Structures are given as C-alpha cells and as structure tokens.
Amino acid sequence: MIHSGIQRASSAKSIAEALAPMETPIRISRLLKELSAQAFDGLLVTSPVNIRYLTGFSGSAGLLLVSAEHTVLTSDGRYGDQMREELEQAGTAGVIDEVVIGSIRDQQEAIIRAAAILSKVGLEASQVSWAQARLWKQVLSGSEVLPSDGVVERLRLIKDAGEIARIARAASIADEALSRVLPLLKSGATEREVAAALDHEMRLLGASASAFETIVAAGVDGAKPHARPGSRRIVPGEPVVIDFGAVMDGYRSDMTRTFCVGPPADPVVERMLQVVLESQQAGVQAVAPGVQARTVDATCRQIIAAAGWGEAFSHGTGHGVGLDIHEAPAVGATVADILDPGTVVTVEPGVYLAGIGGVRIEDTLEVTADGRRTLTEFPKDCLI
Question: Which helix (H) or strand (E) holds 145?
Fold first, then answer.
C-alpha cells in the first residue's frame, strides 16, 4: 500500500492543529499597506474565502470592513460561537476591533458606523453582483465606494509555511485514499462507485471535504475533461481518468491520474498515455522560481503538438491552488504571471479524443527557492 503511514484521524481539526501555524494575525496589516498604496481608506470584504484568509473565520456568511481606524467583522446568529473560537485559534481576536453577530440590518449598521470616517472604500468588484454594488453605494453614501481588483487575492498568491503544510497534508490524504480505492477498478465498478469511495476514504483520513466534485471518467467518457461520474463500468483495456483532491483546514489539493486495467486495447490510447506522461514530466521540470507561467504551458503543449494532438489539448496547463481550487497564478498560453517561491500550481496536460477517451496527468507543486516540490506523490504508472 502506498503512503500507508497516513493514519485515520478523528477529525480534520485535530490534524490541522498538528501542522505549522499560519501567519493569519499579520494579514490584515499587510492588507492595510496594500490599501494605502492604492489610496483606499478601507476595504469591504464580502468574499467568505477572503474573510477566512484574513481572519480565520470560516462561516458561509459575513462582512469584514478593514481600515486603519477600525476593523469590524460581522455575521449572523448561526456563527457566534464558531466565530469566537476560530478567531482565538487563528490569533486574530486581538486584531479585530469589533465583532457583531446579528441580523443583516445589524451588520449593515455596524459597517456604516465603521465607514463613517472613511473617504474612499474599496468593494471587491469580482465578488459582488451589480445589485449588491448599487446597494453598498447607497448604504455607504457618506463614502466614495470604488471597485477594488484582487487586492486580497494578490496577498493569497504567496503561501506561508502553514498554508503549504495544509495543502501538502491534503495531497497526502488524496494519495492514500487513491491507494485504498484503486483495487475497485479491477472489480468492474462504475465511475460513480469509484468516485464515492474516494470521497469516503478522504473523509475517513481526516479531510473535511472533497476539494471539488470528484471526476472518474472511463472509456469514451474520458474525452470530456470535466466529465461527471455516471453508471459506466470500468472494463479492461480502456483508460480511466481520475481527477480529485482533499480539503485540509480549508486548503485544497488537486491530482489527476489515468489508469488502464491491463494493456490498452487501442494502440492510440497507449500512445496517448506515453505522450501525456512525457508532456507532464517536462512541465513539472519547467516549474521554477522566476519562470513565466506560460513557459510551463508551452513546454507541455509543444510535446503534445509534436505528437499531432495539439488541438486535442483543449485547456490550460494548470492553475494555482489554495483556499480555492482555482486561483492565481494561472498556467496558460497567454498568462504573464511569474512563478515566485511560495506559489502553488498544478501541471495537468491532457489529450481528449472523441470516441476513444482521454488521458490527463496532474500534480500539485510548490515553487521553492531553488526549484519545485511535488506535493502529490502517487505514482504515475498507468497499468494496474
């Protein structure tokens, strides 16, 4: 069994407590520096993921107004105890000036009071609808409400040691779950049964959730990059694409492997497996500090194009991973992002041929000061 050292955990919380601490208490001060540089007096954070990043509070509803004068965090009555516990655990209880638990109106009034002395308030443009933006302009009529663009997301780009540790633990859980579930492929199980087994094992191993909807795509279903698991059974000789990940303390992993029960029945599939593996390995080696993300994409794409399947590689080569399964930096042909130490990205080239199937291989990698560290360690041997 692969990675058998991973033990079943009583809870995701107990595992997270054993990991390196995150730098959550200093994130609001870092944000204030960014706001000052952009001439904002404050920022109204509405994204639950960004609120979690800045404060440690993981509730599904809340508001956070950050300013040098007064920082206030709000939510509703479902989350009073949880908020207090999570702020203490994150070390941010002393960073937040005011905590308000109450109705939507109570929360709005708290934000209005805190914003009363602010001239320019940023609103997360990518996180609010047009109607919400209009509402906040009316509610905060004493301030100039302006769109902000990815201020918190840029802070999230470089992961601290605690964040990397959580992504790595999520990857380890996914590795072990796959080792436990892999024998199912030989039993003629359906795509849906394999996906459910993976989700179950990750929970048993301490994950709080699956990182996204688990993909298991057998045979011709694999020609759809984001196929949903169905009733199709896994049969010998056909490729099976498995794309999944775990969540540990909010942080996600992402891995894809393509398997075949016995030798591929179609020589085209055998060639696809060889080419995609070569492409993916070259892409992994191209990941390094200071490298443009599009260079990694080009490295993978050139190998697949040389095999005659350039048009069959229909998506970008990768993406950042963290509190979201898709975040900056993107790894694509037109992306100008630079891979800096502390960024976490995937490398996942694929080939998809209608009527035949698909092949994708993916790892999650940390960009280090001298290269890269692969966080997803499950072997890439395709034959089982």
Answer: strand 144-148
Structure tokens of 179?
A: 């080792």
| Domain 24-156 shares a fold with domain 161-374 | no
To 10 degrees, what angle do helices 161-181 and 191-204 make? 130
For residue 51, the one-letter residue type is: I
User: What percent of the chain has a predicted confidence (pLDDT) above 90?
Assistant: 93
Q: In terms of Cα–Cα distance, which of 316, 382, 302 is closest to 345?
A: 316
Sketch the domain layout of the chain as residue ranges. Answer: 24-156, 161-374
pLDDT score recorded for residue 384 = 87
Q: What is the pLDDT of residue 3?
A: 33
Residue 268 token pair: 């085209």
- Alpha-carbon span 269 to 351, nearest angstrom: 10
Architecture of the domain whose range is 24-156 = 3-Layer(aba) Sandwich (3.40)
> Under CATH, to which class is 161-374 assigned?
alpha beta
Residue partners of 259: CB distance under 8 A and separation at least 6? 182, 185, 239, 240, 242, 382, 383, 384
d(CA 203, CA 328): 27
